[in-house]
Specification:
By secondary structure, this protein is an all-alpha fold. The chain has helices spanning about 1-40, 45-50, 65-70, 75-105, 110-125, 130-140, 150-170, 175-185, 190-200, 200-215, 220-225, 235-240, 250-280. Helix content is about 75%, strand content about 0%.
Length: about 290
């Protein structure tokens, strides 16, 4: 009887937990569904019937997508190209340099390395708003205000989390493997690229996914650093969907927002298992 009661209680607990998690899931998904529904409605109905499904009267079809991509004098395809360039270059720099730095920090036990590691960890808790004006002026002075140079700025901001995760994983790699490579004649660079880097693949994928999602959706840093009249990423392009007297076509805005988040949603769904593996791998040793 006691065992039966225990099983019933456990089943009830799991049911309640499932309901709570389902409600939380709906809350998180609702904004995305709202964007999806309103991207196919006329601008007037977006304002008055925000949560209603499109009808024959309110439906705009794909006109919002066409208008959003052809609005103004700045072509949407250029914003896509700049977003891709910035995301790819920034993520590549972060993965290469932070993984090498984390490997060095983990293997060289010195005060400098420990201090540098703690500074990187501390940078994770510093709000961007505290440094954004100084950063903007510094980027202009150093000519880091183009899509090909702003990845250097992203490298600085993304280094904290990346080094933290890479360092945790490197500590789980047996030192004997690197010693064997050194005996075989491998120098530091060859040891890193031939031995350490392949073993860091789970964390490399995990960090890459997190950085790509952050950089692709970032609005504040590009708008502060880039010349927005010449270089506009997708978030900046969406911000400038304004007509006369500052009026905004919400239908076209929702359409472009949907186009911008679909790649990241698909990308995350395909790679979420790698995020879990990478985080778990980096948490083996602290």
């Amino acid at each position: 009887m006691n065992r039966q009661q225990t099983l019933t209680s456990e089943r009830r607990r799991k049911t309640i937990l499932s309901i709570v998690l389902a409600v939380i899931c709906v809350i998180y998904v609702l904004p995305v569904l709202t964007v999806l529904v309103n991207s196919f409605k006329l601008n007037t109905f977006v304002k008055t019937e925000t949560f209603a499904l499109p009808t024959a009267e309110s439906s705009a079809g794909f006109a919002n997508f066409v208008k959003g991509m052809t609005f103004g004098n700045y072509p949407f395809w250029k914003s896509v190209v700049y977003s891709v360039v910035i995301t790819v270059l920034s993520t590549g720099l972060i993965l290469l340099f932070t993984s090498m730095a984390a490997w060095y920090i983990s293997r060289v036990n010195s005060r400098f390395c420990r201090g540098f590691y703690y500074l990187c960890v501390f940078s994770m808790v510093v709000p961007f708003q505290m440094v954004m004006f100084t950063l903007s002026k510094t980027a202009d002075s150093l000519h880091l205000n183009t899509p090909w140079t702003i990845p250097i700025v992203y490298l600085g901001f993304g280094a904290g989390l990346a080094i933290f995760m890479f360092a945790g994983f490197v500590k789980s790699i047996p030192l004997e493997i690197e010693e064997a490579a050194a005996i075989d004649g491998c120098g530091p660079l060859r040891t890193y690229f031939s031995v350490v880097l392949p073993m860091m693949r789970p964390t490399m994928i995990s960090v890459g996914i997190l950085e790509i999602m952050w950089i692709w959706n970032d609005y504040l840093l590009p708008v502060l650093v880039l010349d927005i009249n010449e270089y506009r990423t997708i978030p900046i392009h969406i911000q400038y969907l304004k007509g006369s007297y500052g009026t905004v076509d919400l239908g076209a805005t929702m359409a472009l927002i949907l186009l911008s988040i679909i790649p990241m949603i698909v990308f995350y769904l395909l790679c979420q298992k790698h995020i879990i593996k990478g985080v778990a791998a980096g948490a083996v040793k602290g």
